Amino acid sequence: MSLAPRVVLVHRTTEYEELVAHHGTHGQAAFFLSSRGRDIEELADRHRRTRAALAEVTAAIPLTWRQSRVERADLDRFLFAPEDVVVVVGQDGLVANVAKYLAGQPVLGVDSDPGRNPGVLVRHRPSEVAGLLAVAEREVDELTMVEAVADDTQRLLALNEIYLGAAGHQTARYRLGLDGDGGAVEAQASSGVLVGTGTGATGWLRSVWRERGAELRLPGPAEERLLWFVREAWPSPATGTSLVAGELTASARLRLTVESERLIAFGDGMEGDALELTWGQSVRVGVCRERLRLVG
Questions:
Q1: What was the pLDDT predicted at 213?
Q2: CA–CA dist 49, 45 (Å, integer)
Q3: 113: helix, strand or coil
Q4: What is the DSSP track for 25-87?
Q5: What is the pLDDT at residue 137?
Q6: How high is the pLDDT of residue 190?
């Protein structure tokens, strides 16, 4: 007998909950904010809307289906099953946070606070969930992801972008090149390298792209093409600035060889879940074979 589908509700602790947890009580948190000219009711209202959205989504799950919940901070310890339908309730970034832990499960993004989120990935309202669960396996958009693979087999996936550089805003030193480019590499010192997807083109990647004069065409979310940029490359007798931007097709790879004591690679802003790279290690970045299956 096959198992009934399981809905995994993904959410994150609200700003209000974090503030109260830090200060101990609602009153102490309110006093702290008021001393800085802020009103806690703004956060409390958003908290109530988020909880109401979670309750409405929970009520829409068929009674014969199984349910589970996972908070953003626990994603790296949660085991997703092949039959899961993942329902993300929150912001666009929360969909990106969960994408790297999946293996083809459909994802339904639900906007918990319409008007505050762009709605690129959380496309739906809580009232639509009941109908969408019935078609979640069929009506999906397959979004391109990016991966970084180190020479010691460490692997990192991301939906928006992968950043490679030094922790703590220090200068990153490395050698950069493209696979199949005749072995040409350039020694660089910079603020790091950003490699992004078409989904990431609505965020950090787009801001860098705009600063560079938009000479490269931004990829679409489902397009098997990435853009990469070196941030603030520094010219010196030992480091160059000629290899600072480009695109990667499905089979192309950008190779970075570490020439610092420690560099990191992290995806979608989750620096706490990063690859650790040391002197002499190399990492290759390119289009990932896995895709995020987002319910349209």
A1: 67
A2: 6
A3: coil
A4: SHHHHHHHHHTTT--HHHHHHHHHHHHHHHHHHHHHS-TTSEEEEEEGGGGGG----TTEEEE
A5: 82
A6: 96
Q: Which residues contact 115 (CB under 8 A, 6 or more apart)?
A: none
What Å distances lie between residue 199 and 40, 148, 213, CA to CA? Answer: 33, 17, 20
Beta bridge partners of 69: 9
- List alpha helices for 128-264, DSSP H: 129-133, 204-211
Pairing between strand 84-90 and 106-111? Answer: parallel
Amino acid at 203: G
CB 106 within 8 A of CB 98: no
Q: Encoding tokens for residue 231?
A: 């941030």
Burial class (CB in 10 A: 0-12, 13-18, 19+), 159: buried
pLDDT at position 138: 86
Q: Got the DSSP string for 255-285?
A: EEEE-SSEEEEEETT-TTS-EEEETT-EEEE
**pLDDT averaged over consecutive 10-residue blocks of the chain (296 residues)?**
85 95 95 93 94 96 95 93 95 94 95 88 95 89 97 95 90 92 86 96 91 86 96 94 94 95 92 90 96 94
- Give the Å distances, CA to CA, from 273 to 74, 197, 264: 11, 19, 10
Residue type, position 13, single letter: T
Q: What is the dihedral of CA 158, 159, 160, 161, to 10 degrees?
A: 20
**Closest to 202 (Cα-Cα) out of 61, 90, 95, 59:** 95
Radius of gyration over alpha carbons of the chain, in Å?
A: 21
What is residue 206's three-state secondary structure? Answer: helix
Distances (CA, A) of 154 to 103, 143, 229, 263, 281: 17, 23, 22, 14, 11
* 204 secondary structure, DSSP code: H
The pLDDT assigned to 133 comes to 93
Distance (Å, rounded) from C-alpha 204 to C-alpha 212? 13
Of 249, 229, 159, 230, which is closest to residue 197 (Cα–Cα)? 159
